[in-house]
Structures are given as structure tokens and as C-alpha cells.
Amino acid sequence: MTVRVPGKVNLQLSVGPLRDDGYHDLVNVFHAVSLFDEVSAVESETLTVRVEGDSAGLVPLDGDNLAIRAARALAARAGRPYGAELVIRKSIPVAGGMAGGSADAAAALVACDRLWGLGLPQRDLLDIAADLGSDVPFALLGGTAVGTGRGEMLTPLPVQGTFFWVFALADGGLSTPQVYGECDRLREAAGERACWPALSGQLAAALRDGDAPGLGKALVNDLQPAAIMLRRSLARTLQVGRDRGALGVLVSGSGPTCAFLAESAEHALDLSVALRSACRAVVNAYGPVPGAVVV
């Protein structure tokens, strides 16, 4: 049983105050893009995981692996022990701010649900996904959606047309907790108080109308200054995209992947050529695309 699952870019990531549970209240506009991992589940007496593809050596193979945790949580919900060999084929960057680990967890839920013949409704899978991590439910749904709370409470957003993206991949990853911590530190040092976040009306309208220039102007990521402080080279990468006419530029999620909105597929190709000298690798994609699907 093989499931294909997309990565995401955050079109708006507005970070509110720190909560008592250690999370922040967010308004997080997720946008699924055509950069996919595949997760296969094969019958086995035990739960194991194997990873292939780009940066496979950076993915944990123990209990810290989100796909393994997802399969265990699904078996626990079913109330009986199950086994599976999970094979993850990576294309989404590892620790790159595009929710690759969360995507693999979502794919594992769908693959194991089918392999084990459970037939759980999507609502149950979404409940399990929310317990695993803030980004996992969106990887099940795909498309474009606004996440509130810590990002796990999703409302789909209407989108017209297709948007074209270029992603500049950096060497190594960034720790999401470290980036959030740096965001809090920068705000405290500047004497700023986090405001309760709200969905950008300009961004929602641009998505609804298929207005790529309008969307480019509305892109925002409150974590971007923190990511740049931790990885100064990101500022140069973002500037290359600006200089080559990207409609919008931002760090994706907690980084270090940088996202560039293009006018068209042809413009995306031009941007990708210009960016190759500023990062480890460049990939082109489009969105929105569906979430985890059986292939």
C-alpha cells in the first residue's frame, strides 16, 4: 500500500503569544505544493521504517520517527497490535520548514489504515493526526487551509487557479523549537508584545481571485527574522529572488527552505536558474494539490 503526500509552504504564519502548554497561538495558512514523499506500508509482524532518497540519513529510524509514531497511534486506536514495514521515499526537504516529517506521518496513517483494513473515517484520522503534531492534519487534507490554535484546527480556503513556486533548499536543517525560541527572544529584546493573530483579508482575497501579484504582496512569516538570525545566508538567498522579479519571497515555516512565488511556469524556470548559485538545490512546484492519496 503506497501513499503519496505533499509538502507545504506557509503563506501566512502569524505567531501569537506563548501559551501555558508551551505552544503559540497561530494563524497558519497552509498551501500544499507538488513536492511529494511516498510512504509504502508492507505486511510485517513488527513496526519498522526504512528511508530512501534525498537526505535519508537525516531521518530518525527509532521512536522519534513521526511515521512510526503515527502507525503506533493508529494501532492503539484500533485496540490491537499491528505490524508493518514502512518505506519512506523522500523528496520533501528534511527539517526544511515544509513539514516533511508531518507529511510522512499523515501518509503512514492512510497507508496503515488501508493495509490493516480498518476503514476509519477521515475525522478519526484527523483526530489522531492532531495528537501527533500541528502540521499533520493538513497533510491529510491538502489544498489550502487556515490553521488556528497551534495550527491543527483547519478551515479550507477557496482558491482559484494555480500558483507557481520555486523553493531554494539549504544545507542542513533548522530546529523548529529553536526558531520559535529565537522569535520569542527577538520580540522580548525589542520590547514587543505578541498580538493575537488574525487571517489576512488581503491574502484570502488574492487566493480566492487567483491574484498572484496580490498574493505575493500579502505573504508573511513572523518566524522569518528568527530563521535569518540563526542562518544569515537566508537573507542573501531571499534577495536573489527579489532581484529576479519574484512576486513574493519568504522563508517557508521555520526554515531554512526559501519560497519564491513566480508569475508563471516560465518565470519559475528563470528564477530557478538564478537561485542555483545561492543555495544547495532548487526545485520548482505548483499548488494547491490534494493531501495524502493512495497511488
From TrEMBL:
Residues holding ATP: P93, V94, A95, G96, G97, M98, A99, G100, G101, S102, A103
Gene Ontology MF annotations: 4-(cytidine 5'-diphospho)-2-C-methyl-D-erythritol kinase activity; ATP binding
EC code(s) of this entry: 2.7.1.148
Domain GHMP kinase C-terminal: from-to ranges: 204-279
Reactions accelerated catalytically: 4-CDP-2-C-methyl-D-erythritol + ATP = 4-CDP-2-C-methyl-D-erythritol 2-phosphate + ADP + H(+)
Location of the active site: K8, D135
GO annotation (BP), single: isopentenyl diphosphate biosynthetic process, methylerythritol 4-phosphate pathway
Keywords, ordered alphabetically: ATP-binding, Isoprene biosynthesis, Kinase, Nucleotide-binding, Transferase
GHMP kinase N-terminal domain residues: 65-143
Pathway(s) it belongs to: Isoprenoid biosynthesis; isopentenyl diphosphate biosynthesis via DXP pathway; isopentenyl diphosphate from 1-deoxy-D-xylulose 5-phosphate: step 3/6
PANTHER family, alphabetized: 4-DIPHOSPHOCYTIDYL-2-C-METHYL-D-ERYTHRITOL KINASE, CHLOROPLASTIC
Assigned protein family: Belongs to the GHMP kinase family. IspE subfamily.
Function: Catalyzes the phosphorylation of the position 2 hydroxy group of 4-diphosphocytidyl-2C-methyl-D-erythritol.
UniProt-recorded name of the protein: 4-diphosphocytidyl-2-C-methyl-D-erythritol kinase
Lineage, top ranks: Bacteria, Bacillati, Actinomycetota, Actinomycetes, Streptosporangiales
